[in-house]
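agent> fetching stored inputs for the flavin-adenine dinucleotide docking request
agent> found them:
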Amino acid sequence: MGSSERSTLLSLEEYRSKSSFDVKQMFEEMEPPEYFEIKTKYLLIVNEALEIYNANVSIKIALGVALFANALNCLGSERHKKFYTDVWEGKILSCLAITELEHGSDTKRLKTIARYDALTKEFVINTPGICAAKVWVGNLGKQCTHALLFAQLEVNGVSHGLHGFVVPIRDPQTLQPYLGINVGDLGEKSGLHGIDNGWVMFDNYRIPKENLLNRVGDVNEEGEYETSFTDPQKLLGASLEILSAGRVGIVNESSNNLLRAVIIAVRYAAQRRQFCDSKGIETPLLEYQTHQYRLFPYLAATYVIKNFSNEFSDRYVDCVAASREGSLEMKQVSRMVSGVHAVLCCTKAVITWTTQRAIQETREACGGHGYHKAAGLGDLRNNHDPRVTFEGDNTVLVQQTSNWLLKLYNDPDERDFTVYPLSMFKFIDQLDAILSKKSDVTNVETLCSVSTIMTMYEWLICWLLKTTNRKMDALKSKYNDRFVARNLCQVFKAKELAIVVAEVSVCLAYFLILPASALRIAVQNYGP
Ligand SMILES: Cc1cc2nc3c(=O)[nH]c(=O)nc-3n(C[C@H](O)[C@H](O)[C@H](O)COP(=O)(O)OP(=O)(O)OC[C@H]3O[C@@H](n4cnc5c(N)ncnc54)[C@H](O)[C@@H]3O)c2cc1C
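agent> prediction call returned; pasting C-alpha cells
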C-alpha cells in the first residue's frame, strides 16, 4: 500500500498524526529559502516530489508552510520575517482561510471583518454570523497554530476590501485555541484523510496592527488607511506568485496522478488475460480494441500533459523572475500576469478533469481487482477529486479564461503576445484570415499531422471566440445586463472556448519541446 493511502486499521486521528509526523520529518530535509528570495522552482519541485510520496503530506506542507511563506514574501514586509523564520523552522504551522460557509467561489462577498481599533492599534476580527464561518480550511481542524486569513479590512467605518492577515489560532506549545476563537474540525471527508480541514469563527478577536500583510495597503500611525504599495509592478508580480503558484502545483500533481493511474491500468492490461482466440490462446486485455480505445487516449494525454506541466512550470518561474527583475514595463507585467492567470485557469480545469475521468476509467479497466484498496486507484480517485474544486472551482475558473480572451478580442491594444507564456494565441491577430481558410486536406496522413491538427484548433478557437462574442453582444443588448449575458453564454460557447484554449495550450507546449522527428515516428507508428 502506498503511503498516501489510509489503512482501515488506522483511525482518522492516527492517520492524521502520521501525516503530521511525516511533515515534521520533512522539515529536517528541506532547505528554507531566504526571506524575499523565495525559490519558486524549488518549492514546486518539493511539492511535486512529496505528492508522489503522500498527497496528505504535500498538501499539509503546501498550505502550512509554502503558501504561507509565499504570501509573507509577496504580500508582507520585513516586519513579518519572524513568522517566516518560525514556519520554516517548524515552530508554527499555518492554514489558508478564505472560503466561508455562504461564499466560496464568489470571494468578493466574503464577510469576515477586521476592524481597526485606533486606541489599541489592533485589528478586531469578527465573524458576522454562522454563514461567514471560515470552512474547509486545511490544517485548521486540529493542528495549525496560525491562519493566513483573508478578511474585509475596515478603517474608520470605511471598507477597503479583502486583505491578508496573520492570525494566531492556537498556542504552539499546547495547541489550545486562544480566547475569542471558536475552531473545530470538519469531520471525515471522502479522501485526503491526513488533512484536518476545519472551520473557525472569530468573536472580537484582537491581533496586533503589524499582523496585516501590508504590501498592498497599511494603516499609518495616525490610524488612516493608506496604500503603501508604491510600485504597482511589484504588486502585480506579487499577485502572480500568490494566485498562480497553487494552481501550477495542482497541474503538476494532477499530471503525476494521471501518470500513476495509466501505468497501473496499462501494466495490468498487458498481463491480465481473458477469453481464448481460435487457437485456444488467452488474449491479454490490452489486445482488445475497446480496451485500447479506453486506455490509449489517456496514455496519450499523459505524455502531453506531463510535458506541458514541466514546460509550463519553467515558463511560470521565468515569468515570476521577469516580474521581479523590473526589466519589463508595468503594462507588460500586467499583461503577463493576466496571460499566465488565464492559461492556468483553463489548463488547471482541463487537466484535473481529465485526470479525474482517467482514474475512474482505469479503475474500471482493472475490473474487480481495480477496486481493491491495494490497487491504489480508489484512494487516488478520492484524493485527486477535490482538485477540481479547490484553488478555484473548475467551472468558475474557465470563465476567467473566456472573459480574458473576449477582452483581447475586443481590444487589440490589450494584446501583447510577447509576454504571454509560450507566446500563445498570437494567431488571434489573424482571426478573420484564419476563419476564411478552407481545408485542403485530401488524405488521412495529412489530416493526422500535427500541423493540420493545430491549424484546425486555431480555426476552432477563432470561430468560438467570434461567435461567443457575437452571442454575448446580442444578449447584452437584449437584457442590458452583463452578468446575465455572461451566464447565458457559457454552454456551447464560452465554456467550450476555454476548454479548447486549454487543449491548444497543452499541445503547444508539448509540440514545442518534442523533436519533430519523434513526432513523425509516433504518427507513423500509431496512425491509422
Ligand atoms: C478538500 C478541500 C480542501 C479545501 N481547502 C481549502 C482551504 O485550505 N482554504 C480555503 O479557504 N478553502 C478550501 N477549500 C474550499 C474551496 O476553495 C471551495 O470549495 C471552492 O472555492 C468552491 O467554493 P464552494 O465550495 O463554496 O462552491 P460554490 O462556489 O458554492 O460552487 C458550487 C457549484 O456551483 C458552481 N458555480 C458557482 N458559481 C458559478 C457560476 N458563476 N457559474 C456557473 N457555476 C457556478 C460551481 O462550479 C460548483 O460546481 C477546500 C475545499 C475542499 C473540497
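agent> quick read of the result: The longest strand covers residues 158-168.
agent> awaiting further instructions
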